[in-house]
Amino acid sequence: MTFADTYAGLPEPAKSALGLVVAFCLATLIGAERQYRQRTAGLRTAVLVSVGASAFVDLGMRLTGAEGGTRTVAYVISGIGFLGAGVIMKEGMNVRGLNTAATLWCSAAVGAFAGADMPLEALFVTATVLACNTALRPLVKLIDRLPIRESETEATYEVQVTTAPGASGPAQDLLIERLEAANYPVSAIEIEERGDEAVDVIATLTASAVEAHELDAVTAELERAPGIRHATWASRTTAD
Fold it and tell me: Is Cell inner membrane set as a keyword in this record (predicted)?
């Protein structure tokens, strides 16, 4: 007799209990890794998500069979999405917690498999999640250390010039003219006042990749223009 046959022959309360135990144990492995790395959502959160998913899926199957389990899984997926959003934090241009949110989502998948009487599949998902969070870390660090050219990144680029308050109009025209001459069309222009002494004219480029030396040449030329006090450019990575 196979494991599947033995599992199928268990009474329903025993299946429910076993599903919760499987969800608890496997999520403990996932959560322990998050707890060790001091992430926002650690051991208890991962276990609670997995056990909750298991309980709800099991309840749906007990009430209306496979169809009820399917509907419950759909609600679990969307519900965990809201929970995961709570661990994502934006600090300036940096976003933290995306990996932890994704791990919570996967913990729910483990619980859903356990609640749907698929303990082996739950084990496979757990092994894959642990591999993603541990085995891939050296590869991520290696890629992060590799040098990359500005032209190979996708980002939002801004060129800024500082001028006197009454000279923002000519500065704006000059900025657009020099950028377009360098084949960098402008998608938006913003003017920011800095008190009564200076005004910043900021041009956002249409291009998502640039040659750094070309923008350096443009800003150097702008700084030599009459009325321009300072010129610089900056980039921020575009989130996929």
Answer: yes
Pairwise CA distance, residues 37 & 133, whole Å? 10
Distance CA 192, CA 171 (A): 13
pLDDT 10s digits, 171-210 = 899 999 999 999 888 988 988 887 778 899 999 888 767 7
CA distance 190 to 188: 7
201: β partners: 161, 191
Residue 14 CA to residue 7 CA, distance in Å, equals: 9
Instruction: Tell me the CATH number of domain 150-237, given options 3.90.70.10, 3.90.25.10, 3.10.20.600, 3.30.70.260.
Output: 3.30.70.260
Q: How many helices (H) and strands (E) does the chain have?
A: 8, 6
Spell out the residues 6+ positions from residue 27 whose beta carbon is closer than 8 angstroms to its own: 46, 47, 49, 50, 51, 107, 110, 111, 126
User: What residues does 189 pair with on adjacent strands?
Assistant: 203
Q: Starting at the earlier edge strand, list the strands of the sheet with 186-194.
A: 186-194, 198-205, 155-163, 228-237
Domain residue spans of the chain: 3-145, 150-237
Give the containing element (helix H, strand E) for 191. strand 186-194
